[in-house]
Design brief:
Distance between the termini: 36 Å
Helix content: 25-40%
Shape: globular
Order of helices and strands: EEHEHHHEHEHEHEHEHHEHEEEEEEEEE
Mean pLDDT: 95
Number of strands: 18
Structural class: alpha/beta
Radius of gyration: 22 Å
Largest sheet: 10 strands, mixed
Length: 454
């Protein structure tokens, strides 16, 4: 079980510790087609250096556009999946090509976006009439984007995910658990036969939901089909708890014999409570949930993000997709903008980790800190430039000291601070006798990105 190591905070640039794990820096959302909320978000998005972006809910973030969801790409379920004329790819083509132009790869969710409609009015989540027929529709989408079919592309999309949150309710799967497991197995078996070299998995459970995962994994085992990845979601505020959850998922998946199956936490976000957001919504509760240091847009959320990026490096997690990196509908807690459409703390925290991912691929040995403090150290391949991502998540200390070894002659120090009152604020570097002192300017959570040459 993961144990938070405490003690003096240290980084030794004479000792490498593997590589920075770029696939932990993924997202949901991407720059939109619709200009309802913004004209152009490409530059800000590209500066995040995200590795991949999951396509789930893109139909909700692009009002009036028929994108991504199978019911929009292939609107007549009874039609022939072998005929390109039965698909509408144009809008999704633009969306995905634009994402690639930002330097981020596609992570394609096959299925539909969540259907937030009144009870008894769920249309897109009706269970398929014929599982194999629906699998052939999915196959047409894969062929279009990875094999050039139907005037398509060779995007080399690395992951194809079957469905999203079937364990939620009729908003995502308007059928039984048994019907979904049968659907998942039929589709996975067909797609792996058609595309043995593609990475195909799912099913993006709402959480580590054993009542669904255990029978699904058992069915896959009994039918001799191995998902390439198992995906699930978590909205929480305890970084140690979520790191331990990845270990629990690894044990569960391994227990059914799928020791090579990857683990993807492909929706995650800081969350204290749904109260004021999705339940008991009043203006007062909504603003409390959104604003302030502990709100969805505040510094606690940002520090939670970087603490997880750090801790996940010592976990079995293979890929993670933050929910979500973009501009959804105004007032959403799951985007990168405040209620007045300024970039929020979450954006800047992911940008900090993106700077490490983009420029410092080698992980350096680092340890220590208090229960609230986290450190990730990295360097470039040549071992001439170094970086430290230092997080204090809800800590009370006013200063953080880092012992740094094997950086003789270090120069060009740059320290950037993110706290409740500052975004990307450059502060003086205080380094003497092998120790770096990072001083907070506000109480509570803070994130520091330190870069230098040595």
């Amino acid at each position: 079980m993961f144990v938070k190591q405490c003690g003096p905070m240290k980084a030794d640039f004479g000792t490498r510790n593997g590589m920075i794990r770029k696939r932990l820096h993924g997202s949901n959302y991407m720059p939109n087609i619709s200009s309802q909320n913004v004209v152009d978000f490409n530059r800000e998005f590209a500066e995040l250096h995200l590795t991949e972006s999951r396509t789930h809910d893109q139909a909700l973030n692009n009002p009036g556009q028929r994108v991504v969801d199978t019911v929009f790409v292939f609107p007549r379920e009874e039609a022939d999946p072998a005929d390109p004329a039965n698909y509408y790819f144009k809008a999704t083509d633009w969306l995905l090509r634009n994402l690639l132009s930002c330097g981020t790869q596609v992570y394609y969710r096959l299925g539909v976006s969540i259907e937030h409609t009144l009870p008894g009015h769920h249309f897109n989540t009706e269970i398929p009439k014929d599982n194999l027929h629906y699998a052939r529709i999915f196959a047409g989408i894969i062929r279009h984007y990875n094999y050039g079919w139907a005037d398509g592309f060779r995007m080399n999309i690395p992951c194809w995910e079957i469905w999203n949150e079937p364990d939620l309710d009729a908003r995502m799967w308007n059928g039984s658990r048994e019907q979904f497991i049968r659907f998942f197995c039929d589709v996975l078996k067909y797609l792996k036969q058609e595309f043995p070299d593609e990475k195909i998995g799912g099913p993006a459970m709402c959480w580590l939901h054993r009542e669904w995962l255990e029978p699904l994994l058992a069915a896959c085992r009994d039918e001799g089909i191995a998902p390439d990845f198992i995906s699930w979601h978590s909205y929480w505020s305890d970084p140690v708890g979520l790191i331990r959850q990845t270990e629990e998922m690894r044990e569960l998946v391994d227990s059914f014999g799928f020791t090579e199956t990857e683990l993807h936490l492909n929706e995650w976000h800081y969350l204290l409570t749904w109260d004021g957001l999705h339940q008991n919504v009043t203006e007062e509760k909504f603003l409390k949930a959104m604003n302030g240091p502990a709100g969805m847009l505040g510094i606690d959320s940002a520090a939670y993000n970087t603490a997880l990026f750090t801790g996940w490096h010592d976990s079995p997690l293979d890929a993670a997709c933050y929910y979500g990196a973009g501009r959804p509908a105004a007032g959403s807690p799951f985007g990168f903008h405040t209620l007045t459409r300024r970039l929020n703390k979450n954006y800047y925290s992911l940008k900090m980790f993106g700077a490490v991912v983009h420029g410092y691929p080698v992980r350096i040995a680092a340890e220590g800190g208090t229960e609230t403090q986290w450190i990730l150290a990295a360097s470039d391949e040549a071992g001439k430039r170094g970086a430290l991502l230092v997080t204090d998540y809800r800590g009370e200390e006013t200063e953080i000291e880092v012992e740094i070894a094997n950086i003789d002659g270090a120069s060009g120090w740059n320290v950037v601070l993110l706290d409740q009152n500052h975004d990307e604020l450059e502060i003086p570097a205080r380094f003497r006798d092998g120790k770096l002192l990072l001083k907070k300017l506000s109480p509570g959570s803070a994130v520091f990105l330190v870069t230098f040459e040595y």
